[in-house]
Amino acid sequence: MPPAVTTPSPYVGRFAPTPSGYLHFGSLIAALASYLDARAAGGRWLLRMEDLDPPREMPGAQQAILQALEAYGFEWDGQMVRQSERLDIYNAMIERLWQDGHVYACDCSRKQLQPFAGLYPGFCRDAERGVENAAIRVRVPDRAYAFTDRVQGEFRQHLGREVGDFVIRRRDGLIAYQLAVVLDDAWQGVTDIVRGADLLDSTPRQLYLQALLGLPQPRYLHVPLIIQPDGHKLGKRYRSPPLQPAEATPLLLRALRALGQPTPNELHDALPGEILAWAIPRWDAEQIPHCRTLAEAQLR
Fold first, then answer.
1. In a domain? residue 1
2. Choosing from 24, 233, 236, 254, which is the catalytic residue?
3. Where is this motif: 'HIGH' region (predicted)?
4. Would the annotation count 291 as a binding residue?
5. Do residues 107 and 243 share a domain?
6. Are residues 66 and 100 in the same domain?
7. 18 appears as a binding residue in the annotation
8. Is residue 236 flagged as an active site residue?
9. Rounded Cα–Cα distance for residues 216 and 182 (Å)
10. Range of the domain at 208
11. Can you give the pLDDT of all 300 residues of the chain as single tens digits?
12. Which of 88, 121, 134, 221 could bridge to 150 as Cys pair (CB 3.0-4.6 Å)?
């Protein structure tokens, strides 16, 4: 018999903001890259609210994020998904991993772990503690995980030596990002993940979870982060200015320049939707700067 012919899955992309603050220019670059990459491929673009940490959520941020996306011309497919509505799914997976011996309880304090600079030393790995008042860590193999990013090239990280067993549920019961994002991307059929380069070193942990759970591995594209004059990246932590509807046209053009895309004079007076419609058929991911950071001053 001739070999079976397989056809690639249709492109499914997503944008997944965290409502700990408003969208800013760095968020816009990530949203724009993921949107154009999906639409240029004739694919779907989903919206997911990663609202897993209620204590850090800013009141009104979810509505403000939706309003900003609409003001900047973005249109998503289907209903927005909230991670807070999927907690039972995450906890059921943790129970399965517990039964299979892939995770364990850890009651180490931050003070205990501070000298190890983020590399978990394995204090609780064989302690057989109960889950009450404890975090849940996943056992990682003593091996490296590598992938080829569409912009950043090959990235390799040895989980055992560089990360150690990592948390998938916090001591306070909140689900950790690494587990939720892997389960949700698989559930939503996401084929391509386009996001900021600050998440590049999270990817090997996600590759491991995908392999452990038998889930497909998406393609990855990590866009450069915008660095402010003081050296900090644009972000909610450093009170970067929120996106304003009145600035949609100039900021979309700046974001296109940051992504290496053309911005002809004819777009300077265009509406946001017109800019996106113009940019979709001209999108070229190979023109994105092959670097992890860009200076904000270069984009003005």
1. no
2. 236
3. 17-27
4. no
5. no
6. no
7. yes
8. yes
9. 10
10. 12-83+187-298
11. 333 444 456 999 999 999 999 999 999 999 999 999 999 999 999 999 999 999 999 999 999 999 999 999 999 999 999 999 999 999 999 999 999 999 999 999 999 999 998 899 999 999 887 878 899 999 999 999 999 999 999 999 999 999 999 999 999 999 999 999 999 999 999 999 999 999 999 999 999 999 999 999 999 999 999 987 665 665 555 557 899 999 999 999 999 999 999 999 999 999 999 999 999 999 999 999 999 998 875 666
12. 221
